[in-house]
TrEMBL record:
InterPro entries on file: TTL/TTLL_fam
Protein name, as recorded: Tubulin--tyrosine ligase-like protein 9
Gene Ontology MF term list: ATP binding; tubulin binding; tubulin-glutamic acid ligase activity
Gene Ontology BP annotations: flagellated sperm motility; microtubule cytoskeleton organization
Length: 383
């Protein structure tokens, strides 16, 4: 039996009331839940096998739609949804999932905490590397770059994923070459904008397992971004990626059945054997802080529509001092299983999410849905 981890943010229990645009009595009599998705992977398998869930195709009415972000952008404002209907993204989810917006919101929130609660509280937001948006913060970046000559920086496109467009550099000349490369030709260079990137200080002391870098993928389920959320967490729904999986698959020694991932329990045991249980507990407490503070940073800017939920994929890097660093947050995590073990983990995760998404259960797997009238808080529990 696998352990679970999902973080559930919610203002209130959102009870399932019916289906589509049907009238009240008809909704009460109907037992099925009509779902729709365009994703043909683990998610489709989970939804098709849920008792009482019926797939809807084309333009049929639906109660639960796991859509892609492009559909949301093009259709949300023109689609009528009855009160009970649920859809898998917040309208402006990008406030947390675009790299430049995430950093902007975290910086703003840190300044707010320093004004309102002091430097000690603000320091709890120091979990992301020094970052600048390019090209608009180029001059600020140059000042920082010259303070610490010789260190490595990493450039990342703000809206791409799976390692695409990323490169390392130590010289300003490399940035100038990059800016030239993004233009198609000299006679068009004034008309074609440079693609936005972030320049981020590279974590040069990553924790290694078997001589390899890794990151942790943590799935965080958010059902409401309204003020007054209560967080409940269980244990375990982490994936430990031994290097970027999308990149690792291109390696000639990649094994598709074994993959390159660990389950959380194995990872915790490994760390405890090296550093002791107390250090491991501190690490995971610091990770909890990342989830809470990052969501607080966008709480006032993300549109908390009652129809929306989001299953975020957090990527966390750990350094040699067992300090966790937030690398990025994904709005559309990859649901294909890279191995049988990975497929089973994602199946359990998505089953919990589907059950919670339409709001019938107060407890789902390792999730507990609670309401609160106070600020975002955290309550922990075992699985």
């Amino acid at each position: 039996m696998q352990n679970h981890i999902i973080f559930l943010f919610s203002l209130q229990n959102q009870n399932y009331k019916g289906h589509g645009l049907s009238k009240g009595k008809e909704r009460e009599q109907r037992a099925s839940i009509r779902f729709k998705t365009t994703l043909t992977n683990t998610l489709m398998d989970v939804l098709r096998h849920r008792p009482g869930w019926v797939e809807v195709k084309d333009e049929g009415e639906w109660d639960f739609y796991w859509c892609d972000v492009s559909w949301l952008r093009e259709n949300f404002d023109h689609t009528y949804m009855d009160e009970h209907v649920r859809i898998s993204h917040f309208r402006n989810h990008y406030e947390l999932t675009r790299k430049n917006y995430m950093v902007k919101n975290l910086k703003r929130f840190r300044k707010q905490l320093e004004r309102e609660a002091g430097k000690v509280e603000a320091a709890k937001c120091d979990f992301f590397p020094k970052t600048f948006e390019m090209p608009c913060e180029y001059h600020l970046f140059v000042e920082e770059f010259r303070k610490y000559p010789g260190i490595t920086w990493i450039m990342k496109p703000v809206a791409r994923s799976q390692g695409k467009g990323i490169f390392l550099f130590r010289r300003l000349k490399d940035i100038m070459d990059w800016r030239k490369d993004t233009r198609s030709s000299d006679d068009q260079k004034d008309d074609i904008p440079v693609e936005n990137y972030v320049a981020q200080r590279y974590i040069e002391n990553p924790y290694l397992i078997g001589g390899r870098k890794f990151d942790l993928r943590v799935y965080v389920l958010v059902t409401s971004m309204s003020a007054g959320c209560l967080l409940w967490s269980g244990h375990g729904r982490h994936n430990v990626h031994l290097t970027n999986v999308a990149v690792q698959k291109t390696s000639p020694d990649y094994h598709p059945k074994k993959g390159c991932k660990w389950m959380l329990q194995r990872f915790r045991q490994y760390l405890a054997s090296k550093h002791g249980p107390q250090a491991v507990e501190m690490l995971f407490s610091d990770m909890d802080n990342i989830f809470v503070k990052s969501l607080q940073s966008v709480q006032k800017v993300i549109i908390s529509d009652k129809h929306c939920f989001e299953l975020y994929g957090y990527d966390i890097l750990i350094d040699q001092d067992l300090k966790p660093w937030l690398l990025e947050v994904n709005a559309s995590p990859h649901w294909d299983g890279s191995s049988q073990e990975d497929y089973e983990l994602k199946t359990c995760l998505l089953e919990d999410t589907a059950r919670c998404g339409h709001g019938k259960e107060k407890r789902v797997g390792a999730l507990t849905s609670c309401g609160s009238d106070g600020p975002v808080s955290r309550r922990r529990g075992g699985s």
